[in-house]
Amino acid sequence: MTAATAIEVRDLTKVYGKVRAVDSVTFTVEPGRVTGFLGPNGAGKSTTMRLVLGLDRPTSGTATIGGRPYATLTEPLRQVGALLDAGAAHGSRTARGHLAALAASNRIPDRRVAEVLEMTGIAKAADRRVKTFSLGMRQRLGIAAALLGDPPVLMLDEPSNGLDPEGIIWIRELLRQLAGEGRTVLVSSHLMGETAAFAEHLIVLGRGQVLADTPMKDFIASRVRPRVRVRTSEDERLRALLKEHGYDPVRSDDGRWHVDDAEVDAIGPLAARAGIPILELAAEEATLEQAYLDLTASATEFTAVPQEA
Ligand SMILES: Nc1ncnc2c1ncn2[C@@H]1O[C@H](COP(=O)(O)OP(=O)(O)OP(=O)(O)O)[C@@H](O)[C@H]1O
């Protein structure tokens, strides 16, 4: 049975001229977890989100929320919170004025305005005109607007855009918290590393098509070969030990060893038992991003080819 707040996309297609921006896309976004929506530029993420929100008409197929098209929802801000374009607020309005107008048109109590200003960290700037806001502050205001109706479904397009490092940590925690409360949370991004920090589930688009729809941990387990970086004062002993245990260490110019298909949990104790001093031991971070880039490589190449208008 479908959850009452799942986002369901079925055989969705959107054609602009000769571009199949979204090409027979089918997926379900389930409540209670953050779903990362990844894909290179032009993959069709924003178009898919616009179609779900009824901002554009599909060429064919359907997109529903809790089984209903967005356009048929009553008081939609109470059901679906969306961040699509951080520039959407009127520049001459204050942040508080912008949110108050949205609240009034959706029968949302005015006190909720102060709550979301607080939640998104812009309460101090609430009475400034939006045109004086930095990109990061606009982004926070967009998130405040999405949260205004306390909706069970959230769709956020690149919410980390323009946020400083502290803001990026804040948004990660917010997304996890919202999903933990049982909400349906779909978040688009270009960056796998960033997405892995908050998403439990992953949908990857490329060239308008679904390339992967999988729990994050399965994506990592099936596509990411664990790799370890290690440095020692006893290179030859470490190399011999690793070889003896079936690893194939490769030494780089900076003196570090890189070991494919190895985990720190295995290498650390192995070296310790052999009495080999370890000066540095780390899992290589880049491999998840690399797995994502490999998956989308062919789709990216296609978009780099000039297309007929
Ligand atoms: N209104 C439009 N008219 C014509 N083509 C469009 C329109 N909107 C999107 N496209 C095209 O559809 C394709 C998908 O674009 P979309 O913005 O959905 O991708 P995206 O994955 O969100 O990319 P980005 O990460 O760059 O935002 C692109 O080739 C884009 O040029």
UniProtKB/TrEMBL annotation:
Listed Pfam families: ABC_tran
ABC transporter domain span: 7-232
Single GO molecular function: ATP hydrolysis activity
Stored SUPFAM superfamilies: P-loop containing nucleoside triphosphate hydrolases
Highest taxon listed in the record's lineage: Bacteria
Gene3D superfamilies registered for this protein in UniProt: P-loop containing nucleotide triphosphate hydrolases (3.40.50.300)
Keyword annotations from UniProtKB, A to Z: ATP-binding, Nucleotide-binding, Transport
Similarity remark: Belongs to the ABC transporter superfamily.
Entry-linked PANTHER family: ABC TRANSPORTER, ATP-BINDING PROTEIN
Name of this chain's protein: ATP-binding cassette domain-containing protein
Source organism (scientific name): Streptomyces coryli
